[in-house]
Amino acid sequence: MRALRILLIIGLVLAGLFVLADRLAVGYAEDRIADRVKVGRGQAASTSVEIHGFPFLTQALGHELEQVDVKLQGVEASNEGRRMRITEFDARFHQVKLNGDFSGGTAGTVDGSALVSYEDLTKASQNGVTVTYGGAPGKVKVTATVEILGRSITRSVVSTISLVDGTTVRVRADEVPGEGIPGIEGMVRKKTDFDRRVDGLPRGIVLSGLTSDAGGVHLAVGGKDVVLAGS
User: Please, are residues 164 and 193 in contact by the beta-carbon 8 Å criterion?
Assistant: First the structure.
């Protein structure tokens, strides 16, 4: 009986050591992948990685992870001199095949979302306008000031925000009140209407949808054979 208790204690100690070793290994792997996550031509202010599945060590030995969650904050990217900051990117990388040195790999499929805050969308307009929520999904309110005959005229328009060609955020005013002033609509639209290409996300990620709410503009993202990190 005493021998059985000793064996049980030894088994529990070994199990505890295995769990500890497994958690230390997964923490090291998460930090290493976070340092090497590829964000195309962009640069993220912060990156966090969470590897799912237990035990991690058996997954690592098989060179394939069930799921890796990646969260990027403040992804800065530019296209033709026009900046578009992605406030937050949150995605799940499934069936990640690890490369030889365990520093990264390629995911079979990816699903998730990206958020562009109204503050970042305002900065992306580069037209001196202010962008806020438009009161309904897919709508934003754009406020612009134009100079006409020495007078400053400020107009707020409700605009439709949409995704074009799976790469570009488009903002177009539904209607511009003109009050009978010739040329005012064109002048206002020159500021309120704009397109911005979304760059900086991991290579292989595609945008599949867009909507807006009080929290900002939300982009649905996905992809196949997406490089997570490493070469």
Answer: no
Give the Cα separation of 166 and 114 in Å (integer). 13
Is 199:99 a contact under the CB 8 Å cutoff?
A: no
b/e string for 213-226 if b means 16 or more Cβ within 10 A? eeebbbbebbbeeb
- Kindly state the percentage of the chain with pLDDT values over 90: 32
pTM: predicted TM-score of the whole model, two decimal places: 0.81
Distance in angstroms (rounded) separating the CA atoms of residues 202 and 134:
30
| pLDDT at residue number 214 | 94
DSSP annotation string for 36-73: HB--TT-EEEEEEEEEESS-HHHHHHTTEEEEEEEEEE
Q: What is the C-alpha separation between 115 and 203, in angstroms, rounded?
A: 18
Q: Mind listing the pLDDT tens digit for each residue in 17-58?
A: 555 666 676 777 777 777 777 666 667 778 888 888 888 788
- Whole-angstrom distance, CA of residue 32 vs CA of residue 88: 21
Residues 6+ apart with CB under 8 A from 160: 138, 139, 171, 172, 174
Other beta carbons less than 10 A from residue 27's beta carbon: 12
Q: How many other C-beta atoms lie within 10 A of the C-beta of residue 89? A: 26
